Amino acid sequence: MTKPGAEHAAAGGAPESPDRSEHKNFIRDIIDQDLKTGKFAGRVHTRFPPEPNGYLHIGHAKSICLNFGLARDYKGLCNLRFDDTNPAREEVEYVESIMNDVRWLGFDWGDRLFYASDYFEQLFQFALRLIGTGKAYVCDLDADQVREFRGTLTEPGKDSPFRGRPVEENLDLFRRMRNGEFPDGSRTLRAKIDMASPNLNMRDPVMYRILRATHHRTGDTWCIYPMYDWAHGQCDSIETVTHSICTLEFTDHRPLYDWFLDALGIYRSQQIEFARLNLTYTVMSKRKLLQLVQDGRVTGWDDARMPTISGLRRRGYTPEAIRNFADRIGVARNESTSDVALLEDCLRDDLNKRAPRVMAVLRPLRLVIENYDDAGLEELDAVNNPEDHSKGVRKVPFSRVLYIERDDFRENPPKKYFRLSPGGEVRLRYAYIIKCVRVVKDKATGEVIEVRCTYDPGSKSGMQQSGRRVKGTIHWVSAAHALEAEVRLYDRLFTVEDPGGENWKELVSPHSLEVLKGCKVEPGLARVQAQDRMQFERLGYFCVDDESREGALVFNRAVTLRDSWAKIERQ
Ligand code: ATP
Ligand code: MG
To answer: 246 CB under 6 A from ligand 1?
Structure first.
C-alpha cells in the first residue's frame, strides 16, 4: 500500500498538455516535404481503415491518434473507412463499437464515413478496365493450385495455364462470375504481373474470389468479393487520400499498391508504413482477443482486463490518457514493444490532476473510539483534490464507530510500521489522532475483529496543532454512514511479458481479477454514474463500473497509485 501523496511522485515532472502531437516523427517529415514540393497541392488527407471483425484495441488507438492527429495538426481531413471486404467475419456490432470508440477517443470524421463496400461497383468497373488492357485474367485454378503455382521465396512461380486467355473471354467470364454462374472458389480474377517476381505479392495476386456470403451492408447483391490488396489502394484513390498510413507488414505490398494505381492510371495516394504497437503482458491480435471472449476467459470485449478501447474505458481509462500514451510512444519505422507500465503511468498522470479524492475501505476492520460520544457526529472538511484547490472541500461524517483498512492494523507490527498497532498512535485522515488501547478477537479463530481506541480531542486536523506529530495517517469511513460497494481489483491478464507464442492461452493469469464485496465507501458516492472516476485515497484510481447501480455500487480499480512493477523511463 502506498502512502498518501505517493501518486504525485509517480506522476512527476512539469505539467504538460495532454496532447503533444506536435512531436516530430518520420511521417511528419514526409508530409512537411510533400507540402514543400506541392506533391498533393498542399493537402493532407488520411484515413483510418478498420476491418469490422472485432473491437478496436490500444494498437488501433495508436493508428487513430496518428491519422486523425495528422489531419488535425495539418488542418487536413481524416476519413473513417470500414474495410468490409470479407463478409464471412464481419458484423454490424463491430461497426457500431468502432464508431463509438473513435468518437470516445475524441476524434471526428465529420461527413466522411465510408465503407469499402460502397465502392464495390466502382471496383468492379476498375477490374473490367484492367482486363480490357490485358492486365488481369480469369483463372480456373482452385485455391490449392494457386498456392502451388505461386512458388516460394527461393523458387519462381509458374504461369497459370489460364494466363493467356483472350481479353473477350476474360471479360465474359468475369461478368458471369459476378452473375453467380460459377460455384464458390472455382475461379478467381488475377492481376497479370510477374510469376517470377522476387516479391510474392506480385506473382499474379488474386483480385476477386467467388464467395456466397451475406454481407452486412450489401446483403446478397454480390457473390464475388475483392481482396484486401485490390480494394485498399483503389479506395484510397477514390477518396483522394494523400498519405495512406499502415503498419509494417504491408511494406511488401506497397509495390502492388502502386502497380494497381499505375495500371489504372488513377489518382495515386502514398502508402507509408510504421511500426505497430506491441505492449508487454498483452495480446493484441483480434483473433486472440476474440478467442478470449469466446472461451469465456473474460466477460466480453469490454471486460476491464481487455486491451480493447471498450475494456480500457470500462476499466477507467480516459481518452486523454490514451492520446497522451500514443504521443509518448511516438511513431517509428522499427518494431518495438512498449511497456504497459507506461500506459498505466499516462492514466495516473491524467487522473492525478482530475480525479476527486474520496475515502473507501476495501477490507474493513471495525474501530471504536471509546472516549467519543455515542451519539456524537461531526462533519469534517476533506480536500477534494490537493492538485486542484479550485475543487474545494467536502464534508465527511465522523462518529464513534469507524471502519479502517484491515491492513492498517497489525497486532505484532514489524519495525517501521507507521500504521496502527496496540499502544500505537496514528492520525485519521482529516480527523484526529487516535491511540489503540485494546483489541477484540473472535473467540474461535483468534482473529482481531475490532480495534478499540481513544482519540485526542485537541488533535483535530486543520486546528492549531498541539505540536504532537505522528508518523502515520490512515483513511477511514464512518460505519453508520458508509455505503456498501463491490470493488474489482485487476492484475495483468497474462503472467509473462511476452505472451505471444503458440501456448499463449496457458499464460492467462488465474489471478487477474479479485472481487471484494462488502467494501465501505463514503456516503457522498451514493449517486455516482457509470464511468465516473475518482481516487480512493491511498488505494488507487477507481472507476464506476457499467453494472453499478444506486444501492449496488461497483467500482473497478483502473490503476494503483504508484507503479510497483516497472521503472518507467521518462522522456
Ligand atoms: P486484421 O486485419 O488481422 O483483422 P488488424 O489489427 O490489422 O487485424 P484492422 O482493422 O485491419 O485490424 O486495423 C485497422 C488499422 O489499424 C490498420 O491501419 C492497421 O494497420 C492499424 N493497426 C492494427 N493493429 C495495430 C497496432 N497494433 N498498432 C498500430 N496500428 C495498428
Ligand atoms: Mg488489417
So the answer is: yes
Q: Which three cell numbers stand for residue 147?
A: 498456392
Does the beta carbon of 353 lie inside 6 Å of ligand 1? no
Q: What are phi and psi of 425, to 5 degrees?
A: -120, 150
Class of 120-228 per CATH?
alpha beta
The answer to whether the CB of 435 is under 6 A from ligand 1 is no
Residue spans of the domains in the chain: they are 4-115+232-349, 120-228, 358-481
50 C-alpha vs ligand 2 centroid, how far in Å? 7
Q: Which of 251, 217, 254, 3 is nearest to 114 (CA)?
A: 217
Is the shortest distance between the CB of 53 and ligand 1 below 6 Å?
A: yes
Indicate the top mutation candidate among 27, 46, 51, 334 to test ligand 1's pocket, ranked by most ligand atoms within 8 A of CB. Answer: 51
Closest ligand 1 atom number to CA of residue 63: 30
Amino acid (1-letter code) at residue 442: D
The neighbour count for residue 302, using CB atoms within 10 Å, is: 19
User: Does 335 participate in catalysis according to the annotation?
Assistant: no
What is the third-level CATH fold of 4-115+232-349?
A: Rossmann fold (3.40.50)
Choosing from 43, 163, 217, 276, which is the catalytic residue?
276
Which is nearest to 475 in space by CA: 568, 563, 540, 393? Answer: 540
pLDDT in tens, the chain (571 residues): 333 333 333 333 333 344 445 578 999 999 999 999 999 999 999 999 999 999 999 999 999 999 999 999 999 999 999 999 999 888 899 999 999 999 999 999 999 999 999 999 999 999 999 999 999 999 999 999 999 999 999 999 999 999 999 999 999 999 999 999 999 999 999 999 999 999 999 999 999 999 999 999 999 999 999 999 999 999 999 999 999 999 999 999 999 999 999 999 999 999 999 999 999 999 999 999 999 999 999 999 999 999 999 999 999 999 999 999 999 999 999 999 999 999 999 999 999 999 999 999 999 999 999 999 999 999 999 999 999 999 999 999 999 999 999 999 999 999 999 999 999 999 999 999 999 999 999 999 999 999 999 999 999 987 665 567 899 999 999 999 999 999 999 999 999 999 988 999 999 999 999 999 999 999 999 999 999 999 999 999 999 999 999 999 999 999 999 754 334 333 3
Position in ligand 1 atom list of the atom nearest CA 247: 20
Annotated active-site residue in 47, 178, 286, 328: 286
Same fold for the pair 120-228 and 358-481: no
* Ligand 1 contacts CB of residue 253 (under 6 A): no
Q: Three-state SS for 50?
A: coil
CA distance 564 to 492: 12
Bridge-based pairing of strands 483-490 and 224-226 is unpaired
Residue 450 appears among annotated catalytic residues: no
Ligand nearest to the CA of 52: 1
Q: Is domain 358-481 given the CATH code 2.40.50.140 in the classification?
A: no
Query: Strands (DSSP E) along 457-502, which ranges?
Result: 473-474, 476-478, 483-490
C-alpha cell belonging to residue 535: 481516487
What is the residue with the minimal CA distance to atom 18 of ligand 1?
246
Catalytic residue flag (residue 286): yes
